[in-house]
Amino acid sequence: MTAHQAQMEGFAKYNAEFNSRLYGLIGGLTDAERKKDMGAFFGSIHATLNHILLADRIWLGRFATAFPAMQSLQQAELVHKFDSLRDELYADFAELKAQRAITDELIINWAAELTAEQLASSMKYRNSQGVLREHPTWVAVAHMFNHQTHHRGQITTLLNQLGNDAGVTDFVAYII
User: pTM to 2 decimals?
Assistant: First the structure.
């Protein structure tokens, strides 16, 4: 296994573990608190959680198109077409939480299946504005994980504003 492969598997593990802990903490909020517009980029905690899941499924859909033989992505609930990056996948928090766990398990299996050749190869896709993009696959994979971390950081700030401490968020605390 190359360092790139190990890094991506580590990111998948980190995301799944931190998402589980974060969703557990958020589960203690009321629906009104989760859906309150608090001025974040996507407004509320719930909308931000929906956006993260939507974006992950969009990226996984792009990877499924680029690498159609990947077993982990076969039969998975992926997004290939969407109207907006603000599309709400699940209004119900329990369903959103369940789908997040399913997608995190999928990401763990997919990351374990990624090969050094796939990570080094170039992939093409259209971004959310329809612009054709092409770059090494490892860039897209790293972006998917970084994107999730970025928006979780926004959620931890919103939780702090509600008096809830998300605790340690550092990658190294989860991977070592």
Answer: 0.96
